[in-house]
Amino acid sequence: MKSEILATGDEIRSGALIDSNSAYIAQHLERCGVTVLRHHCVGDELQILTEALIDIAERARIAVVTGGLGPTIDDVTTQAAADAVGKTTMLDQKALDSIEDFFKSRDRSMSSSNKKQAMLPEGADPLYNPVGTAPGFCLDIKGCLFFFLPGVPYEMKKMLKEQVLPRLKAMQGDQRRFCKVKTISTFGLPESTTGERVEEISDIFPELRLGLRASFPDIQIKLYAEGTDENHLNQQIDKAAKWVLDRMGKKAFSVDGETMEAVAGRLLKKKHATIAVAESCTGGLIAHQLTNVAGSSDYFQFSGITYSNESKIRVLGVNPDTIEKYGAVHEETAKEMAMGAKKLVGADFGLSTSGIAGPTGGSDDKPVGTVCIGLATPEDVFGYRFFFPFPSRSMNKSIFAMTALDILRRSLL
Amino acid sequence: MKSEILATGDEIRSGALIDSNSAYIAQHLERCGVTVLRHHCVGDELQILTEALIDIAERARIAVVTGGLGPTIDDVTTQAAADAVGKTTMLDQKALDSIEDFFKSRDRSMSSSNKKQAMLPEGADPLYNPVGTAPGFCLDIKGCLFFFLPGVPYEMKKMLKEQVLPRLKAMQGDQRRFCKVKTISTFGLPESTTGERVEEISDIFPELRLGLRASFPDIQIKLYAEGTDENHLNQQIDKAAKWVLDRMGKKAFSVDGETMEAVAGRLLKKKHATIAVAESCTGGLIAHQLTNVAGSSDYFQFSGITYSNESKIRVLGVNPDTIEKYGAVHEETAKEMAMGAKKLVGADFGLSTSGIAGPTGGSDDKPVGTVCIGLATPEDVFGYRFFFPFPSRSMNKSIFAMTALDILRRSLL
Q1: Angle between helices B393-412 and A285-292 (to 10 degrees)
Q2: Which of A322, A324, A286, A323 is nearest to A304 (CA)?
Q3: Which of B38, B48, B290 sits opposite A40 (nearest CB)?
Q4: Can you give the pLDDT at residue B107?
Q5: Do A222 and B16 touch (CB under 8 A)?
Q6: Considering CB atoms only, which of B10, B15, B397 is closest to A23?
Q7: Of A208, A308, B242, B275, which has the maximum CB count within 10 A?
Q8: What global pTM score does this model have?
Q9: Side-chain half-sphere of A103: how many Cα atoms within 13 Å?
Q10: Are the CB atoms for A226 and A30 separated by under 8 Å?
């Protein structure tokens, strides 16, 4: 079954608001075996909206539309649906009752404008909204079954799950198609090289489709399998994931979207080890990422964001002579920072960064994009230097932090 | 001039990725006086993509397409553009040179698959990509001028600003319409109360349109003005912004999108003051935000991410008796943390957070969402306690950090 998705509203059309509803709906339709062909967005103009509905009806068998069901004059979706089938709107008693119930259950009184929300196109089937005032409805427009849902994400999600997806599953019966997806996250190779390394997959697993996604700073390899035999799809995709993991080696750091910091944290926890961090150029990003993981207090002990040389010396105990001799951005300084953080709180591992995130502060010798990373393990200490050619401070902070966490991860493998 | 926007790629079509490019493009086209009629999204299937291009060409005079210009086999946008005009793709020497330059400037070697990116539809005009390997191009398809840009947001943004918008302005000549927007960022009131406080604006400035946008944790008040007389629009919108700032008082922290951390940093710099931070529950987010601002090394000296009690005592010199008596999450502990960080590196201000970001760790007395904040000024030290009712760790970290920075900002006013 082929489907299309339409988001309505001037806020989305004009770019004031990013449409996150359509991605959510697409994911759930595909998982339910309904192929999504296209998404669309139009504003609150009745004629353009009506044309878009007719357009979609010509190509798709299923459509999900969000937004424009509210009580104000710029909510025109219901009228557009009526126009698309050449019918009028009528008061739907079931819809009116549900709106009245909603207000009653919240001890609020219903305003007259809410009554407008119970006007549905003739022939429409109301969809109950348990968490808001706008009921949805479904309506056949020229052979395509349209589900009209509110634009408020929370309301839309609840109605999609409870009222749309079960109908779609029932409609498919024995013909139900499944869409499986597996994501392998990799770090350290450019997109083109990553693609070249796994391109044979289409020969080995001809039933699967490969997708690459650059989600800076990592590259995600996505495997898609579609068909009617769910067990077979799961087997195929698991086999293919193993093949990809094998091809990518240590460049692959996780399956199914686990973040680098979650992987590093999981490995620390498994070893019952703790970590202390010393950050200069990453400015707290490593600590922020590590502590985004729930339960990170089991292994994360401390990070010292030491921007100034003085704080490197005073807090971390870096030898002033080292900074004098090599400079703050140097493997030797990074090593002393990592050891200093580790020692300060008695952690098992120490990880440090010192570099130049830009936009200023670079030199010929150490241009913007240079980072030195120190790793102190229970037994030893290592220093690394990298150069990344990115133009922005935030990209540099991000790839510096990822590189440091990757070094930690590899040492824990 | 009427325009449409098309995002391509299976990740977006299938919902694995939320399309933020189209909103960005819509905003910039509208500001430039180009009306956006519709957005669309299709996957990586050549035929569907080609049909979408022809569809758009029938309605719009301008179109912007993102994605599918990469080096891999699932990048089919260039071929679709060629098919839409019934031409073949040809090696474009200028495009090839720019890709080679890109790799040379980064001391990397060009892979053979990147050469594919220099194949453009016959008759296309290449658009130089200064920050990536995929050149864009523009091409007339059935009377509609299409701009094809890469899907990587920072590449797209740079090319849109430098190469697309100037052309569109030139095309409009004397007929140019202007769309002005002014954003006032506020923090500390819910969306509904913010709306009520400024709702009279439509009586006082009837030419302007008001928009509210909840961009957690702050609320943005947006003022829109549209017309052909640029000076008049600027005057109106400036007057209205002053009115809004007056109504919102200290709850308004910036105009035109300056972040809370940039405002706090600017105020510190103006006072030639420095800051040290001590973070527990915010886990480095405050340091990360402060150091995201270029030039922050002028005032940011140090942050200690002290998750464990031991590190609060060892690194910041918090009195163990204080923690024993009051607990780690308490105004008194927060005050000692702020003073400790300030003293440790000799800064003028100290700012601290200690709280419970969740999902676990809460108690009846101090539920998830509780945060204590300490502020040490050159003269004094203050302790605060807040409770926020949010369900997620990342929302709590975010609003805790924002609240702390807001306390710092207000003390610097």
Answers
A1: 140
A2: A286
A3: B38
A4: 80
A5: yes
A6: B15
A7: B275
A8: 0.83
A9: 15
A10: no
B111 touches chain A (CB under 8 A): yes
Vertex A394, ends A259 and A371: CA angle to 5°?
85
The pLDDT assigned to A109 comes to: 76
State the first-to-last Cα distance of chain A, in angstroms, to the nearest integer.
45
Cα gap A273→A265, rounded to integer Å: 9
Ordered mean pLDDT values, 10 residues apiece, chain B (413 residues): 95 91 96 93 96 96 95 88 96 88 82 84 92 90 97 94 94 84 92 85 91 84 89 96 97 96 98 97 97 94 92 95 96 98 96 94 92 98 94 92 98 96
Cis check for the bond before B71: say yes or no (omega within 30 of 0). Answer: no
Any CB–CB contact under 8 A between A221 and chain B?
no
Structure tokens at B101: 């330059």
Report helix, strand or coil for B377: coil
A positions 337-356 inside 8 Å of B (CB): 344-346
Given a contact cutoff of 8 angstroms between Cβ atoms, the answer to whether B188 and B215 are in contact is: no
Nearest CA among B293, B294, B280, B250 for reference residue B408: B250
Cβ count near B174 (within 10 Å): 5
Reported as a pLDDT band with limits 50, 70 and 90, residue A70 is confident
- How far apart are the C-alpha atoms of A230 and A180, rounded to whole Å? 8
Contact B323, B313 (CB under 8 A): yes
Point out which residues pair with B306 in neighbouring strands: A302
Smallest Cβ–Cβ distance between B13 and the set A26, A43, A394 belongs to A26
Of the candidates A138, A5, A4, A3, the residue with the CA atom closest to the CA atom of residue A69: A138
Instruction: Note whether A58 contacts B: Cβ–Cβ < 8 A.
Output: no
Mutate to test the interface with B, among A19, A280, A305, A314 (most CBs of B within 10 A): A305
Strands A275-279 and A349-355 come out as parallel
Can you list the positions of beta strands (E) in A68-188?
Answer: 89-91, 119-121, 125-127, 136-141, 144-149, 178-186
- Which among A146, A134, A135, A151 is positioned nearest to A42, based on CA atoms? A151
Say which residues have a Cβ less than 8 Å from residue B268's Cβ, sequence separation at least 6: B274, B275, B299, B349, B412
Number of A:B CB contacts under 8 A?
269
Structural contact between residues A261 and A408, judged by C-beta atoms closer than 8 angstroms: no
d(CA A292, CA A262): 9
Q: Is-contact A149 A156, C-beta < 8 A?
A: yes
Strands (E), A172-240: 178-186, 209-215, 218-227
Q: What is the CA B67 to chain-centroid distance, rounded?
A: 20
Neighbours of A117 (CB within 10 A): 24
HSE of B168 in the Cβ direction (CA atoms, 13 Å)? Answer: 30
